[in-house]
């Protein structure tokens, strides 16, 4: 009888165990070999090789594996080859890290049920530095973080170590990410204090065997605030000495320290301009002190001051005159668009415009402007849109990918970055599908030629199941999800009409009098009785002139501007005829409605997926889709009802009627904190 009861209990609990997954394993859901194996040989020895061996012995179910350091050309870096026969698999690389990457590739292919009898492949990274930017504060909060607190437990370090430090490194290594900035670009000077550097050292030691280098965001005023100097003027010799000594101190602790990321003279952060110096003066001073150690400076171009000039033009205006003035270990880090990580932006015209200076892209994985941890928005299509944009800087085919990866202009060092969406939540990223954006960034940093489809396909197979009845429909959701979000939030080139501060919901009526005009939504949509949109043509702000021909003319002309950016570049009359024959007003209505319908379809598709995956992740995603669908209606109603007060035109009768009152929507004030 006793026995029987146990059976019943097992019977009840087993399915729960088998079917509950909390997402903590990410895409690394490798099967564990029932018996320990010893199937890996290598002609190299290092902690990195030990990791590769351990991973393969534990998780690889196939034939013996040889990890071989081989002769490769000088610039082969961390690439690798995989060659297999039915008996043996050889991974060949120039470095131990290349062998580790090859090992993860093998395990990933196993997850995707690939055929290993006759494999022949070669992989080389598109960029040298593939770096995550954490906007983590020393108090454990994360700026624009939606997955709980910071992974870095500064209070506990350097003595107490969270197991997640190594899990983090492993996840990154498995997709080729090789660098991380630990702290917020709005940097506390304390980050460079001796006690904090000792904590950083411990993290660097854990990450090192996984090939991940540590970088820090630094506050430009550190010499003054931390060192007690009179000022932080980059031309002051005491200031220079302070940085030199600081670099020496850092490299003594962390010999392979990567370098600094700097947000200067931007949104109130200190910088060289406080002393009448330029961005180049500031960046070069830091570059000089890092140079002897091989360190680099990633200097951000996200600058805009409270001026009359169109915000979208400011980075270009400020940095182009400095071209050629930066030291060769400085890279200018440029956000994909000229405003700020909007659902859709024209690409940043600074790409290609700096001819004698290295440039790198900054993407945002964390979904500050894309529904945060509530909305399913797969970002590979957004990343690809930027990378594949042709700037025409050196004639046709001058894509941002080719400008930044060294193809078009030989570069000493190439890099690509993104603001991380990782926190201490069990599933790391808040939304299970937000893991796909971390994954997609890593994959594209490794190989920017991959398609969004390929990335979604492999991620789904590794993270959920190989069953095509699941993979195909869910892949379709992922691939269309970015466009859907654009439709229900900001179609046709609209931008920055978010609620102030937290940036979660709609607030197109936002007009924060007394504050900076370019922090108010009305600045961006410019709606009035005639029409809507920001006039950036030659007769408007003339931002179009910052693009290379023929783009300047293409964007200047309303007829040739792509319609998905029409309100980005033009103030368009409500009755303007779009290509499909609808008026602009009607088109706007249909776009918002389409976004809502797409969300409903995603819900229906997802509900059919229950049979294929674990109950926990199924229902957590289901709950989030519900919120997202509701939010889509909120966005649609808020924007259409508000813009209708200008257009004075009816909402077409065949689309769903608003279910809210504008006045009620205006009263919504989410209490989510945040400054701007
Ligand atoms: C904006 C964020 C703000 C960041 C800033 C930046 O709203 O929190 O500090 O960008 O990138 O997107 O510096």
UniProtKB/TrEMBL annotation:
The active site is at 267 (proton donor), 340 (proton acceptor), 368 (proton acceptor). Belongs to the glycosyl hydrolase 67 family. One of its GO terms (cellular component) is extracellular region. This is xylan alpha-1,2-glucuronosidase. Transmembrane segments: none annotated. One of its GO terms (molecular function) is xylan alpha-1,2-glucuronosidase activity. Its EC number is 3.2.1.131. Pfam families: Glyco_hydro_67C, Glyco_hydro_67M. Residues 111-428 form the Glycosyl hydrolase family 67 catalytic domain. Residues 429-654 form the Glycosyl hydrolase family 67 C-terminal domain. It catalyses: Hydrolysis of (1->2)-alpha-D-(4-O-methyl)glucuronosyl links in the main chain of hardwood xylans. One of its GO terms (biological process) is glucuronoxylan catabolic process. Keywords: Carbohydrate metabolism, Glycosidase, Hydrolase, Polysaccharide degradation, Xylan degradation.
